[in-house]
Amino acid sequence: MRTETCDVLIVGGGPVGVTLANLLARDGVSVIVVERDIEVYPLPRAAHFDHEIMRLWQELGLADAAQKAARPAGAYEFRNAAGQVLLRYDMPANAPGGWAASWMFNQPDLERALRERLAREPTARLLIGTSFEGFESETVALYCQADEPFRVEARCIVGCDGASSPVRKALGIELEDFGFDEPWLVIDAIERDASGLPDINLQICDPARPTTCVLMGPGRRRWEFMIRPGEDPADFLTDSRIAELLKPWVPEGAVEIDRRAVYRFHGLLAYQWRKGRVLLAGDSAHQMPPFLGQGMCSGLHDAANLAWKLKLVLDGQASEALLDTYQTEREPHVRAMIQTAIAMGQVVCATDPVMVAARDAGMLAQRAAGKNPVPQPTPAQGPGLFRPDDAMARRMFPQFGRFDDTAGPGPWLIRRGDHPNLDALLCGHEAVLVRPDRYVFGAGEAAGLTAAYEAALTSTPFACSLAFSSRTGGA
Ligand SMILES: Cc1cc2nc3c(=O)[nH]c(=O)nc-3n(C[C@H](O)[C@H](O)[C@H](O)COP(=O)(O)OP(=O)(O)OC[C@H]3O[C@@H](n4cnc5c(N)ncnc54)[C@H](O)[C@@H]3O)c2cc1C
């Protein structure tokens, strides 16, 4: 049987796997991505990414491609059955990542741009039509391409193989279930005449049929309809049923249906994200309902967190213990996202008339009192390779203008006076040390920061005392 070799083997060529491969290959790591399918996933999935993810596309030189595939989102409203506004988020045109807060896009367009970029990397190979069959050992995986088996020997393997993750299953890793499970019909359409269609993103919290209507990339629209208990999901995929559901929304001939699918929206989190030299990232490690538009975004944060750590460990510049900080940092962030997405889903999906009346009364009273929530900063990462007890650590460092392009790949030691917008942020500190994934390691005296960062890379002392709190299911 033939054997292929590489530093990092990535199982799954979805957005998370191919982003991770791009980041590693840009830094000279040899990568093989194996992908079961030939084409990018054809059914409707992500429609939204945020400013932090646009910053990641910028880092990969894909900001132009992303802007072509996306449009900034203006507002997100929750309305009740009577059309009253229960909640409204106005999305800032300038968010801390240096881009508009919120972008609506078409996932396959971005996945193609990621694959095209990867094809230009001399140290990366994407093997399509290739199925992961199992592990021979911790660092050898077995594959099949066009019925011909072969082996891949790698120093590290990352399972980015999606919700049903054969890698996660082969490792025997279980999922924590957050107890949310709702079937929805998802329809993607191409606009023929957008003049009569909503120009903001909407959640219609109508107990008779909870509905989502959002923009996507240029010229595209998404509708989602909750399937109520007792209804047959298969009935919802027919042309006639879809036409009936869209009738109140769409003037005759205004859109053409492109894709349709029924999904179960749920919240799941792997108890363990690393077993030795095998790691999980993206949907293989966590899934959430789409009400926050953060499922793929969370997986892309995994890729950004993992890429520089793998590079340092493979180069012998950091101890293997650095890889333990991957879960301690990422899991609390993802857990918070899952919980928020489920809380939003519970608002949208409520069908009990008493609960719905109480929800509407409560939310309308909040709005009348001027207590409309503003979009919150994304949660901090959990403890790991960060200075402990440091108020600036564990959050993403903001981008002023296109600072990242000037500064290049991190880490960065940025001193007071280096940038006019920085001094107020530093709260009296001399400097801030920013990791390669743009998260702040800590702020303080410059020499002390550098020494602490270098010591942490080789011993990861801050990570040692941290157990994976949820590995056994506890919070
Ligand atoms: C309706 C809906 C709406 C969503 N909206 C949003 C949103 O607005 N914003 C957002 O951020 N996220 C959203 N998401 C979530 C987002 O689509 C996923 O989180 C994202 O696609 C996961 O990416 P991934 O790379 O981890 O996995 P996937 O995209 O699932 O990729 C996994 C890949 O692994 C491959 N694979 C599987 N098994 C094997 C094998 N044995 N061998 C080789 N390859 C294999 C698969 O073919 C696949 O290509 C939404 C999801 C849905 C369903």
From TrEMBL:
Segments passing through the bilayer: none
Keyword Oxidoreductase: yes
Superkingdom assignment: Bacteria
InterPro entries per record: FAD-bd (IPR002938), FAD/NAD-bd_sf (IPR036188), PheA/TfdB_FAD_monoxygenase (IPR050631)
Domain FAD-binding: 6-340
Full protein name: 3-(3-hydroxy-phenyl)propionate hydroxylase
Organism of provenance: Caulobacter ginsengisoli
EC number: 1.14.13.127
Coiled-coil portions: none
NCBIfam families xrefs: PRK06183.1-3
Molecular function in Gene Ontology: 3-(3-hydroxyphenyl)propionate hydroxylase activity
Keyword Oxidoreductase recorded: yes
Keyword entries, A-Z: Oxidoreductase
Pfam families (UniProt xref): FAD_binding_3 (PF01494)
